[in-house]
Amino acid sequence: WFADPKPCIEGALTARRVAPLLDEAVDKFVRAIAPLGAWHGVMSLRLEITPSGVIKNCRILADTLVPLTGDPADAQRIRRLLLAQIRALEFPRAETGSVITLPLIFR
């Protein structure tokens, strides 16, 4: 990359409204996978959020995750933990739905 990828938000939600929620979810995720060793790569998610703040769809768009000190068998567990953490979020209500593309960098 020439620059670190950043989240992209389309729709009525703003970065100011979603950043605290996403930051907290990612922090919880990082703590949950800490016992699974070190990993390297990028995992990008796409979240489709309804006007009521509910996540309608959450999927992995890109995944280049590889273990540095972790067990490769844990990769699927890491994906499940991340998706569960993000899907549990409830976003603020907005006039229209939003789409968030969230790149996560593992170093």
Summarize the model shown.
It contains two helices and five strands, in the order βαβββαβ.
Characteristic terms for this protein:
5 strands; single chain; alpha+beta; 107 residues; 30% helix
Which helices and strands occur, and which strands form pairs?
Blueprint lengths: L7 E4 L3 H19 L5 E11 L5 E9 L2 E2 L7 H13 L10 E9 L1
Antiparallel strand pairs: 1-5, 2-3, 2-4, 2-5
Helix pairs in contact: 1-2
Please give a structural write-up.
This protein has 107 residues and is an alpha+beta fold. Helices cover 30% and strands 33% of the residues. It has two helices and five strands. It has helices at residues 15-33, 75-87, and strands at residues 8-11, 39-49, 55-63, 66-67, 98-106. Strands 1, 2, 3, 4 and 5 form a five-stranded antiparallel beta sheet that branches. Strand 2 and strand 3 (55-63) form a beta hairpin. Helix 1 runs antiparallel to helix 2. It is elongated. The model has no long low-confidence stretch (mean pLDDT 94).
